Amino acid sequence: MKINKIIPSIYTPEIRSLFTIPRIYRFRSYDEAISKLMFFKNKFETSNPNTIFYNIENELILWVRDYNIENLKEQGYYGNYIKLGVKKLKLGKFYYYDIYHENVEIPIENHPRKNLSTGKHPNWHHRVLKRITKEFEYESEKDAEIDLLKLFNDHPDSGNFFSSGRLRIFVYKSDYKPKKIKSFLFDIEHKSNGKYQIIFRENNYKKISAHKIYNYGFKII
């Protein structure tokens, strides 16, 4: 069973704690620190599959919404990458293991970016949605996930929620007419011929604000 993951923001409690509560992630053993790091890895989407693959035991990279964007916001960027890792330190007679965080230098062209030329929500003429409505078949599950991520990156403020293999997004009924939107869920389906297809259905669940989705990691199942 695939575990849904969330894309964190600086307001997500676990991420916010890194910046605001000193020593909150300090442990007496290396195994305890690694266990907490794996908690981050299992809960949050780790790095953008279009940019970097990172597989080191005691480090991981996350893309965090609203993190360190002072010089990027005007260019349409709305988050940044952060590296989490485990380091050993000695305090008096004892050794401890801290989870630390630091900036990551990733080329700016590989950062997710708002599509400044479109409306807040996509319509059915979006290149990814056109492929989906034509029942396009992907060679791998990763290829389908990358297409969903493209749709997410083009419309980050659409009240959407991205997790592994699932996307919730509002879509304009036609063109970019205000109030003519509906919420849809997109999932990846493994077909009997071995290929993958993105299927979608209208989301009839109670609406949850984008603020809650981004900041607190609410899931729609």
Structural features, described:
The chain has 221 residues and is of the alpha+beta class. It has two domains: 13-110, TATA-Binding Protein; 127-216, TATA-Binding Protein (2-Layer Sandwich), CATH 3.30.310. Helix content is 23%, strand content 28%. It contains five helices and nine strands; from the N terminus they run αβαβββαβαββββα. It has a five-stranded antiparallel beta sheet. A four-stranded antiparallel beta sheet has the order 1-4-3-2, covered by helices on one side. Strand 3 and strand 4 form a beta hairpin. The longest helix is centred in the first third of the chain and has 14 residues, at 30-43. It is elongated. The protein starts with 12 loop residues before the first helix and ends in a 5-residue tail after the last helix. The relative contact order is 0.15. The model is unreliable at 48-54 and 208-221 (pLDDT under 50).
